[in-house]
Q: What sequence folds into this?
């Protein structure tokens, strides 16, 4: 059985827009957890409070559930996805109304203790792509058919071109013969 090197924590329906939360997420991505915690403590944003709590949860999940070393952990992945949006109206002049969107987001933090995790994941994806390319030659059936048609057209053009230079050569030989006389 393979040892798990990741632990995650997820918090849904937090009353902050995902666009604002992503600003704070970008600050702590790929950082060691101790450095990420100090960044979050000193960041003056609403999302920093929620991400700090979530990071503590992810660390405790890693230590208690997956037996990972807390000192080696780093923030492998941090995501702020869009959640539900409550729509409210605000009265405006002449009986009209404006729509107010009260946005929510879902926050996810994944911590890992393996520093080469990203390289391994990228390598696995590249291997899968190579395997797929070998199986289907890198094309869908539609693309293969179009490529075959293009090759046939090119072959026809080459035949026409190969016939034309012969005519030109014959003319040049005749002109040389005339010049020689």
A:
């Amino acid at each position: 059985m393979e040892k798990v090197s990741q632990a995650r924590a997820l918090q849904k329906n937090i009353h902050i827009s995902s666009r604002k939360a992503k600003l704070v997420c970008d600050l702590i991505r790929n950082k060691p957890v101790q450095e990420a915690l100090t960044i979050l403590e000193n960041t003056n944003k609403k999302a920093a409070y929620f991400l700090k709590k979530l990071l503590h949860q992810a660390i405790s999940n890693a230590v208690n559930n997956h037996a990972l070393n807390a000192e080696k952990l780093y923030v492998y992945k941090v995501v702020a996805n869009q959640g539900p949006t409550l729509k409210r109206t605000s009265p405006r002049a002449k009986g009209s109304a404006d729509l107010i969107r009260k946005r929510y987001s879902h926050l996810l933090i994944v911590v890992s203790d393996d520093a080469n995790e990203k390289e391994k994941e990228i390598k696995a994806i590249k291997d899968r792509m190579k395997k797929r390319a070998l199986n289907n030659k890198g094309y869908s059936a539609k693309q293969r058919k179009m490529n075959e048609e293009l090759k046939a057209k090119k072959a026809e053009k080459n035949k026409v071109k190969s016939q034309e230079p012969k005519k030109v050569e014959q003319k040049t030989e005749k002109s040389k013969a005339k010049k020689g006389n």
In short: Strands lie at 6-14, 74-91, 97-112. The longest helix spans residues 141-180. The mean pLDDT is 86. Residues 15 and 117 are 32 Å apart (CA to CA).
